[in-house]
């Protein structure tokens, strides 16, 4: 293990020797002493792990030296040692980012020794966090979190890569259970922001009256029950990524406030006056069609254009072909490991056929639930169709035996497809190869309910 390199900058040669001797008692420390600030600056290329500096030196005061150190070695911790106990100076230095302020007295050597230990522990913890975040990034490599080789999913990989290599906002759409949050995490942990926070907020899960405080924070006494300052999710995501799931559930009032924050890139906590600058990458998701929400007056058009950024539409599982079997195999391995099932079971031919014929209204989430149960229910080496429990909810079939006019059947077909595609008019118009204006006309005339 390499020695922990410490620079001691002290113009008093005798006192500098004392500090050097005290620190050198630890065999892990490699201490180098300088009597001038300029000597220290000339040797910063050696990348010391820690620097102690005297506040009052003839060629440069401690504050100036500290600032110059930070210009070239911003991550190097610095301890200031001063002959005078000046509270205002200590406060100023701590605000600038000094790691510790020690007064020269009989306890200096012990205080310095303990300060170095604390700083080393903090550095080790910080390094461990960085390693864990790096490991987390590998965990979220695209092909590790999204199993599949279908053309539809390859298009998603290409879009995710573009999103990860840019700072543009991202909007993710798709049916419930298609993996929107996983995609958002993968984009974050493969971007330049991966070492900062990924903060996820489900807009549908927060009571309407608490949304503003949750997102933007509040000051103590801002409202009844605000007994302390609260940091909002935007601040928590500083220099990282904020993921707003189910963005379509935000009411018009909070949409207006969201728009202002995104435009100005700053916020003011509820009940406060301080303006807080923001550097946050935004990713939003919804199972609804935001264009439809805009047209229906439920979502602000200006906010829609602000958050749309790079759109990623996740395909439902039923449109991904053999990806269903790849995902099933992955979930089998996980389920067998979690439930200590050895050897790992496989899918029988009949089970594979049944999976491929099923429409999966719950998408990947439903597939995982089916496989988890099947692994437990399986009595042999292969999962059989009888081991798999499918949803009892069936898609509503059109009753062609009824006597209806052609127009009534026409309306029934459009209504059924609107339900299937979550009232996505553009999607239904494309699938049925009819004009979207035709659907809107039927909706406006109350012949179709959405």
TrEMBL record:
<dbReference type="InterPro" id="IPR027417">
    <property type="entry name" value="P-loop_NTPase"/>
</dbReference>
<keyword id="KW-0805">Transcription regulation</keyword>
<feature type="domain" description="Response regulatory">
    <location>
        <begin position="5"/>
        <end position="119"/>
    </location>
</feature>
<dbReference type="InterPro" id="IPR058031">
    <property type="entry name" value="AAA_lid_NorR"/>
</dbReference>
<feature type="modified residue" description="4-aspartylphosphate">
    <location>
        <position position="54"/>
    </location>
</feature>
<keyword id="KW-0238">DNA-binding</keyword>
<keyword id="KW-0547">Nucleotide-binding</keyword>
<dbReference type="InterPro" id="IPR003593">
    <property type="entry name" value="AAA+_ATPase"/>
</dbReference>
<dbReference type="InterPro" id="IPR025943">
    <property type="entry name" value="Sigma_54_int_dom_ATP-bd_2"/>
</dbReference>
<dbReference type="Pfam" id="PF00072">
    <property type="entry name" value="Response_reg"/>
</dbReference>
<dbReference type="GO" id="GO:0000160">
    <property type="term" value="P:phosphorelay signal transduction system"/>
</dbReference>
<dbReference type="GO" id="GO:0006355">
    <property type="term" value="P:regulation of DNA-templated transcription"/>
</dbReference>
<keyword id="KW-0067">ATP-binding</keyword>
<dbReference type="GO" id="GO:0005524">
    <property type="term" value="F:ATP binding"/>
</dbReference>
<dbReference type="InterPro" id="IPR009057">
    <property type="entry name" value="Homeodomain-like_sf"/>
</dbReference>
<dbReference type="InterPro" id="IPR001789">
    <property type="entry name" value="Sig_transdc_resp-reg_receiver"/>
</dbReference>
<dbReference type="InterPro" id="IPR011006">
    <property type="entry name" value="CheY-like_superfamily"/>
</dbReference>
<keyword id="KW-0597">Phosphoprotein</keyword>
<dbReference type="InterPro" id="IPR025944">
    <property type="entry name" value="Sigma_54_int_dom_CS"/>
</dbReference>
<feature type="domain" description="Sigma-54 factor interaction">
    <location>
        <begin position="146"/>
        <end position="376"/>
    </location>
</feature>
<dbReference type="InterPro" id="IPR002078">
    <property type="entry name" value="Sigma_54_int"/>
</dbReference>
<dbReference type="Pfam" id="PF25601">
    <property type="entry name" value="AAA_lid_14"/>
</dbReference>
<keyword id="KW-0804">Transcription</keyword>
<dbReference type="GO" id="GO:0003677">
    <property type="term" value="F:DNA binding"/>
</dbReference>
<protein>
    <submittedName>
        <fullName>DNA-binding transcriptional response regulator, NtrC family, contains REC, AAA-type ATPase, and a Fis-type DNA-binding domains</fullName>
    </submittedName>
</protein>
<dbReference type="Pfam" id="PF00158">
    <property type="entry name" value="Sigma54_activat"/>
</dbReference>
């Amino acid at each position: 293990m390499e020695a922990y390199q410490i620079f001691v900058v002290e113009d008093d040669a005798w006192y500098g020797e004392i500090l050097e001797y005290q620190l050198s008692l630890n065999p892990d420390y490699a201490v180098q002493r300088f009597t001038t600030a300029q000597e220290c600056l000339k040797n910063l290329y050696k990348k010391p792990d820690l620097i102690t500096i005297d506040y009052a030196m003839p060629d440069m005061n401690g504050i100036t030296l500290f600032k110059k150190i930070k210009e070239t070695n911003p991550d190097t911790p610095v301890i200031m040692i001063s002959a005078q106990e000046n509270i205002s100076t200590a406060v100023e230095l701590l605000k600038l980012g000094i790691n510790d302020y020690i007064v020269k007295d009989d306890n200096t050597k012990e205080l310095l020794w303990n300060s170095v230990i604390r700083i080393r522990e903090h550095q080790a913890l910080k390094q461990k966090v960085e390693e864990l975040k790096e490991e987390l990034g590998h965990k979220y490599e695209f092909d590790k979190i999204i199993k599949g080789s279908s053309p539809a999913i390859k298009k998603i990989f290409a879009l995710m890569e573009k999103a990860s290599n840019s700072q543009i906002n991202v909007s993710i759409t798709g049916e419930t259970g298609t993996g929107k949050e996983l995609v958002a995490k993968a984009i974050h942990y493969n971007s330049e922001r991966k070492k900062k926070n990924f903060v996820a907020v489900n807009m549908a899960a927060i009571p309407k009256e608490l949304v503003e405080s949750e997102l933007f924070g509040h000051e103590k006494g801002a409202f009844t029950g605000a007994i302390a300052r609260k940091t909002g999710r935007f601040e928590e995501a500083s220099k990282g990524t904020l993921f707003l799931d189910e963005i379509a559930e935000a009411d018009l009032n909070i949409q207006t406030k969201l728009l202002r924050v995104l435009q100005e890139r700053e916020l003011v906590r509820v009940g406060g006056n301080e303006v807080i600058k923001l550097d946050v990458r935004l990713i939003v998701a919804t199972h609804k069609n935001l264009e439809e929400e805009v047209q229906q007056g439920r979502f602000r058009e200006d906010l829609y254009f602000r958050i749309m950024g790079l759109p990623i539409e996740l395909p439902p599982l039923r449109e991904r072909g053999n990806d269903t079997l790849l995902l099933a195999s992955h979930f089998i391995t996980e389920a067998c490991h979690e439930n200590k099932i050895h050897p790992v079971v496989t899918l029988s031919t009949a089970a594979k056929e049944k999976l491929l014929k099923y429409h999966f209204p719950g998408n990947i989430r439903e597939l995982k639930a089916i496989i988890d149960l099947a692994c437990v229910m399986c009595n042999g080496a292969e999962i059989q169709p009888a081991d798999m429990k499918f949803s009892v909810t069936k898609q509503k079939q059109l009753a062609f035996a009824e006597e209806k006019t052609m127009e009534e059947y026409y309306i029934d077909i459009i209504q059924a497809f609107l339900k299937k595609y979550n009232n996505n008019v553009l999607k239904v118009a494309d699938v049925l190869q009819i004009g979207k204006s035709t659907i809107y006309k039927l909706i406006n005339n109350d012949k179709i309910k959405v």
